[in-house]
Structure formats: C-alpha cells, structure tokens
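Dear colleague,

Following up on Tuesday's group meeting, I ran the structure prediction for the three-component complex that the binding team flagged. I've pasted the input sequences exactly as they went in, so you can double-check that nothing got truncated or mislabelled along the way. The structure tokens for the whole assembly follow below. Feel free to forward this to whoever is handling the docking comparison.

Inputs:
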Amino acid sequence: MRRLGRSVLIAPTGLGALLTRPAPEVAARLIGARLKIDGVGGIIVETEAYDRHDPASHSFRGPTLRNAPMFGPIGQAYVYRIYGLHWCLNIVCDASTPGSAVLIRALEPLWNLDVMAERRGAVRPRDLCAGPGRLCQALGVTGAFNALPVAAAPFALDLGQPEPVLVGPRIGLRPGVETPWRFGRVGSPYLSRPFSE
DNA sequence: GTTCCGATGTACT
DNA sequence: GTACATCGGAACG
C-alpha cells in the first residue's frame, strides 16, 4: 500500500494499477470482473490478449487510423468494426508497451437482461453475450464508444477476486494461433466456445 | 449436432 | 483483388 500526500491510499490491486500490466496478465485478471454499460452487463467470462509483437494484433504493423486508440492512453476502449458488420470491444493496457489491448469476448449476463434481449432479438440468455460481436450488440457498444475511458460512465468495471482461469489458443485467427492468450472462467456455460483443445 | 455461405469496413498485396 | 479478433440462417444428419 502506498501513501500519497496525507491520507489517500492507492490499492495496488485496483483496476488502474492492473491496466498498466501486460495484456495477458490483464486478460486473465479480468475474468470474473463486473462490466456494465449504462447499467446493462454481467460478469466477464472470456477474454483475449493482443500486443504489438503479436502477428494477430491490429497493432502489429504500427499505428493506423483504425488502431490509433491501441497506441493511446491505457484504460480507454478500442472499438472496431469486424467483417463490416459487428463491433468488438477492447480495453487498452500495458503502460510500457504501446499497442496492447484485451478483447472482451463473452459475459455471463446478469443485469438488465430484458434490454439485452431486446437489442439482440429473442435469444436464450446463453447466447446474449457469447462472442465479441454479440456482447457489443447486447451492451449497445458501437464506434461511438471508441477511445472512451472504461473507468468512467457510461462504463462501470469492477474487478472480482482473483480466480483460476482456463487458458487456450485464441479464436478465429491464423498467425499467432500458437500463442495461448485466450482466457476463460472455469465451468462457465456462457463462453463463446468451449476450451476443449 | 455439423458444414456452408453471405453480409461488408478496413488494411493490405 | 484478398484476408480478416464474426454472426445468423439454411441445409443436412
């Protein structure tokens, strides 16, 4: 515990401290965290890590207009459109390696399921947030959220207790598939896909 | 349960 | 032109 000035204490385990760390560590630690946007959300059960040394990462070839948030301040959102249709939500991290981020891939929906169901169309709770595109649709995430800080409204992000996590290869990519930077909550039925391999 | 396919923004060869 | 950090629906078993 560090003391600043007279009486302000900074918890070394807080979100701000975590986001200074490398992407794989952040991705693993975010499993079990509570994520809400305007009160709609749930528990993070699946994440993936990316950094600029990783051929699967948008940041691999250096800054562009699209990936600019990955090279900006840590703690902001990086929201991009994929396949021309869906949105994906990342959190920029790692104070020492610009170009790092964690993709939020799945939630266990817990709060305001009716809002999510309306945005997604009538789907069973298991499919509301099981995948990065579905999650963004359920939470109302669009490009308008790009570069917003996740530690302030409309976001609410609170860490849970550290817990053991599943580890495996990331989904849907060719280069970098050998890097096991996908993380999942043990026993969760809300993953986008099982961790069988 | 599986495979196949079309929707189409952005970066790149 | 091709390749994607994807999804939902159709066709099939």
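Chain A has one domain: 15-185.

Cheers,
M.
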